[in-house]
């Protein structure tokens, strides 16, 4: 009896993060074929590219998979139409107002899940009628909340006020941290960084190697006045830091960022000038693996740690 | 078989944080009498005051208790002499180099535990010969590390590289979060904020009320260029923020802080001009309780959640 397993009809309550420039059909289908929920990250795809990935994913797996859509992106009408036409079983929405599209997606048969980083937005998403919530803590890679609430604190807070199935994200890359998340009140976990360092991820090998060599303190949450994002402290970040130190305006910083930094870093492998979005938990990731191995390692460790703790009641 | 229970000879692996202006003999003895490890916070005590608290604590409990000493404070020779003369069973050191005093304390029979916020310092403390490590995450109240590593990420990282008993701190105020910490590889937990809102804490009632009314986003880690500290975003903090925004130097900010802000806030109850050090987890604390009730609630919830999870292997 697990709410996430029941909702998504999957074997393990492990959802792969739908990350821009990382999560294409190869990774999504590999995760779904291994018993988790694979997710295509639509945030970095033009509508026709998204359609291609969906079709390929359907060919590669007969299991449920999902698509992650950042609601603030352009051409949202077209993207939503594709999801509906393609009868995508699970749609994960983020970065935007869940009340705009949830009903339309649900009416067409999709399960809708919304990503939040605060209690306030969790309540808002529940009111908008979503089917589950992903609660993402401060340590997570990529775009993030302003309150800086960590997974350890955020998950119990949200679990207390909503009755929907709850998925924890941020800081989770192993069976031990998955068990921690479940202890905090989550029904399942979303794992991002660990799957960046997978053979099936579409991320550039240079970026995968940066992930497996990351240490504590390698990442930082920055651009808090624009859109907060956790990324690797590379040369690109050092420039941002310098601009803040000399008191640059949000406009000046925005001008420096320009366009296409995430693609340049994560997809093209430019480690100096590109934006490398990754979580703090990259410091625990030492090896590029196949999605199947990642999931089986997590499940084994989860059950092993649970077994040990079960024998040590206090 | 629990390393922390064995090391400290206590009933539950729950250590109460030795917090300045909060943790006097009343709180420490109440925690020890309830099966946890009570800690006197020497950081806010003159040597003679510390002696008084130790003597009163000995009268109030026959159970083991400890003293927390921030090693960078003045009169350290005198403080260490008191700890040795009084045969304090457990000394927790923080904010300073563990190699300076560890041997002297251990030679006199004390168990020495050091607080760290990074892997680097955990390794250093292990080399210095301490008996256990407290790993404190970004969400913790009071003084904190520069890497901003959260409890969820820090505990597995440190657990991987050291073989000493490990205590997790930061974001823990309930049985659920204690179980999360133990899942991450900790052998016990240190709990601070939850004990601030206890009847026995010496903190001012105004401060206790601020803790029980805190919400997500009520605290922030600031003063990163001086000594990073997590505190309540009150009027005092808003002034600090303004100074940073106009590009004030570290010296100017240090001048604004002046002396005695922590006492003013936490002990005297000046909520506007005082420094109110507390963790993110204050957002989960709704009621002032007795130490005994806090511990029994945590233990009950720990076992209840563990029971539920044990029946749901994945």
Structural class of chain A: alpha/beta
Q: In the CATH hierarchy, what is the class of the largest domain in chain A?
A: Alpha Beta
| Strand residue content of chain A | 5-15%
Helix content of chain A: 40-55%
Strand order of the largest sheet of chain A: 1-9-8-6-5-4-3-2
In DSSP terms (H or I, runs of 4 or more residues), the helix count of chain A works out at 14
Name the features.
14 helices, alpha/beta, homodimer, 314 residues, 2 domains, 11 strands, 3-stranded antiparallel sheet, TIM Barrel, 8-stranded parallel sheet
Task: Describe the protein's architecture and organization.
- The structure is a homodimer of 314-residue chains.
- With 314 residues, the first copy, chain A, is an alpha/beta fold.
- Chain A folds into 2 domains: 3-203 and 285-310, Aldolase class I (TIM Barrel), CATH 3.20.20; 214-281, no CATH class.
- The first copy, chain A, is built from 14 helices and 11 strands.
- Chain A has helices at residues 3-8, 25-33, 47-60, 76-85, 102-107, 119-128, 151-161, 175-183, 193-196, 205-212, 235-245, 250-257, 261-267, 291-310; strands spanning 14-16, 38-41, 65-70, 90-94, 111-116, 132-136, 142-143, 166-169, 188-191, 219-222, 229-232.
- In chain A, the strands form 2 sheets. The first copy, chain A, has an 8-stranded parallel β-sheet. Chain A has a 3-stranded antiparallel β-sheet with strand order 7-11-10, with no helix packed on it.
- In chain A, helix 2 packs parallel to helix 3.
- Chain A is globular.
- The two termini of chain A are 25 Å apart.
- At the A-B interface, helix 7, helix 8 and helix 14 of A face helix 7, helix 8 and helix 14 of B.
């Amino acid at each position: 009896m697990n709410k996430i397993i029941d909702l998504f009809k999957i074997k393990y309550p492990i959802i792969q993060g739908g990350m821009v420039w990382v999560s294409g059909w190869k990774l999504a289908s590999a995760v779904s074929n291994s018993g988790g929920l694979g997710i295509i990250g639509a945030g970095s795809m033009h509508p026709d590219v998204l359609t291609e990935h969906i079709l390929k994913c359907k060919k590669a797996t007969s299991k449920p998979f999902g698509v992650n859509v950042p609601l603030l992106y352009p051409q949202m009408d077209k993207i939503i139409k594709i999801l509906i036409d393609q009868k995508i079983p699970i749609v994960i929405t983020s970065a935007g107002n869940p009340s705009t599209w949830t009903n339309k997606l649900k009416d067409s048969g999709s399960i809708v899940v919304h990503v939040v980083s605060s209690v306030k937005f969790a309540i808002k998403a529940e009111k908008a009628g979503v089917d589950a919530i992903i609660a993402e803590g401060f340590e997570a890679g990529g775009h993030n909340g302003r309150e800086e609430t960590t997974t350890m604190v955020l998950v119990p807070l949200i679990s207390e006020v909503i009755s929907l199935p709850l998925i924890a994200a941020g800081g989770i890359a192993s069976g031990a941290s998955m068990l921690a998340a479940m202890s905090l009140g989550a029904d399942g976990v979303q794992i991002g960084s660990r799957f960046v360092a997978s053979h099936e991820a579409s991320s550039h090998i240079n970026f995968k190697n940066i992930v497996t060599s990351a240490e504590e303190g390698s990442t930082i949450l920055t651009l808090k006045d624009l859109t907060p994002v956790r990324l690797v402290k590379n040369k690109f970040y050092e420039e941002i830091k310098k601009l803040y130190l000399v008191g640059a305006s949000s406009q000046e910083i925005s001008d420096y960022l320009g366009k296409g930094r995430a693609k340049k870093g994560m997809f093209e492998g430019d480690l100096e000038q590109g934006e490398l979005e990754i979580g703090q938990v990259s410091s625990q990731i030492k090896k590029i693996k196949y999605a199947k191995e990642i999931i089986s390692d997590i499940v084994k460790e989860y059950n092993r740690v649970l077994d040990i703790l079960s024998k040590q009641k206090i």
